[in-house]
Amino acid sequence: MTRLYNVLGLVNRLLGEYHPVVKVIEHYTSENGDIEYFNIRIHFPQASALIMLREYWQREALMAYGYYIQIKGNEEWWDNRPHHPEIPTHPYHRHLEGKVHPLQDPSLEKFLERVKELLHKNLPKKEKLS
Question: 56: which strand partners?
Fold first, then answer.
């Protein structure tokens, strides 16, 4: 079973109630399964929200990731690019409101929980129930 399959299940479990439109932009798995890469875009029409998820795995180790959400004109992204050595959780950090912040738990599940929180805050009550 690939990481992509697990991620799609996680997205459905955590965000399915918001009716995501999921598109796998790119997916690659090496013949022996040691390397896997994916790029997924998820759109939430009711919330005017877009999520982009990107992961690169090598021998069951997450080498690089980027998780991004844009909702109602606001942007937030989490990544492990080593371009902010001043952050105590280097290389793990998040970008929010034009600033870089430490990221204590960089897991995809925590990011999707954050997305769920943002969707909940940005959808009118009547749309949450549909």
Answer: 37, 64
Which pair of tokens denotes residue 73?
A: 């004109």
User: Which pair of tokens denotes residue 117?
Assistant: 């929180």
The DSSP line for 7-62 is HHHHHHHHHGGG--EEEEEEEEE-TTSSEEEEEEEEEEGGGTEEEEEEEEEETTEE
- Which among 47, 63, 53 has a CA at the least distance from the CA of 25? 53
The model's pLDDT over 1-16, given as tens digits with 9 standing for 90+, comes to 689 999 999 999 999 9
Q: Annotate 110-121 with DSSP letters as a single string.
A: HHHHHHHHHHHH
SS3 6: helix
N-terminal to C-terminal alpha carbon distance within the chain: 33
Q: Tell me how crowded residue 51 is: count the other CB atoms within 10 A of its CB.
A: 24
pLDDT at 129: 44
